[in-house]
Amino acid sequence: MTTDDAMAAIRRYHRVTKHWPGRYAPGPGGLDWANQPNPFRRFADAPLHPLPLVAGTGRLTYDDLYAPAEGPAAPLDAEALGLLLELGLGLSAWKEYQGTRWALRNNPSSGNLHPTEGYVVLTRALDGGLGPGVYHYAPHEHGLEERCRLPVDAATALSERLGDVAIGLTSVHWREAWKYGERAYRYCQHDAGHAIASLCFGARVLGWPLRLVAGIPDKHVAVLLGLDRAEDFAGAESEHPDALLAVGPAPDGALPQAVPAALAAASWAGRANRLSDHQVEWPQIHEAEQATVQTDGLPVRAAPEATVEGAPHPAGTADAVTIIRQRRSAVDMDGRTGLSGDAFFGMLARTVPDPARPPWDAWPHAPGVALALFVHRVDGLAPGLYVLARNPDRLPALRAACADDRFTWAPVADSGLPLFALITDVDLREVAAAVSCGQAIAGDSAFSLGMVADFEAVLGTEGPSAYRRLFWETGIIGQVLYLEAEARGVRATGIGCFFDDLMHQVLGMAEDDEAWQSLYHFTVGGAVDDPRLRTAPPYKHLRRA
User: pTM of the prediction?
Assistant: First the structure.
């Protein structure tokens, strides 16, 4: 597929998978519950190395998550690696209702379907029998399945390139497509972004630098993680390479030349389990997969200097690990709870990229996403429509696209942010709900928002594979908002169902103008819990300390 063909294909995919009032993106007519994908991938006959379960509390306050690391980092051992994986990809609780039981995780997922799989590449030996090798993380067992022991030459070459440990992320697109049909590819990508941020915060707890490895082709990630081994996935759902993160500097570029051949000659163990009896093919997802393949890795555009100094609106001294583990998605909002202006500005400040602070120190790209905010209940701030220009360099282009004469673009005084009021003293609760597929949760919150991507500019500069990274950026923003909500005594939830072009109309964008596109919505407020649900600890079933 040529670059032009790929660009046309991903634009076509994005249009086809838009929701409209009365006409949703192609999806299943109903849910085939008997065929629901297993949320846990396992590799049969791969040795399992249990990881320690540790409290992890008392290491950092919540506000320290967003500060540059100071002091010595935790040593790289099985306990620290286990904590990183648990905080990034592990279970947070079990829920039960009328005999049905399901797990929640620290990394959120659309529909709690969890398409994201995690892998570990170790280039040196650790305690617990973990030698240099490639491992799959099994969150239910909180253990590492040993897929391959690295040959000495490959371990040495990878160590020079990635450091002692790297984390790979992949997606099983079928897990989301089972429920959401063609639109599922979008959800898999912002779930990958949530996982990236979750791992960044887990690494910060340990004092480890975690960096997204840019400039590495998908085929190299597939070789490194064993995804290209067709015999190991025979009869099972395939996994698609997403991201590779390294604990260390992670210079850009492809894998060392000797590594692919060494991995091909190495001894691999394990066969992937089948997650469903059968799959439904969604052609548009397949086309999106092909169109967004990273052949040469994503080009890197330098991020601008931080536009927010420090933490002018701290969230408090709560324990960081406690906040990470208690994160939940709200299923309903009470329609009453608001936020102080200080809390609101503080939450937004942490979504603004700062290359010196997590999770943005892991992100090597210029920001491509602005926030369009429906403010409902924020003390000292008039209700209405606002915009946070996360990349001030692109503010003129955004203003030109939002061509509504009523918009004032008045800077919000004392916010310390590139925050602008478009229209105020207007109740937009019904509008916010209508845009989000009629979901009241978007209007019953303190505020809700759409993450609006600089679509044509980013794809035009970086190519069609940047479609994925725009969604990753929205997922990172979403994870920041999730934790900020928990730390400030409220709750949040991501909204994947929204009427794309209705949101664009609200922003005054022309119907045929695709320069900016809304990719992900979010809402924050006072949650209403369902008392019918029973909750159990995440790892009680393991019976180990």
Answer: 0.97
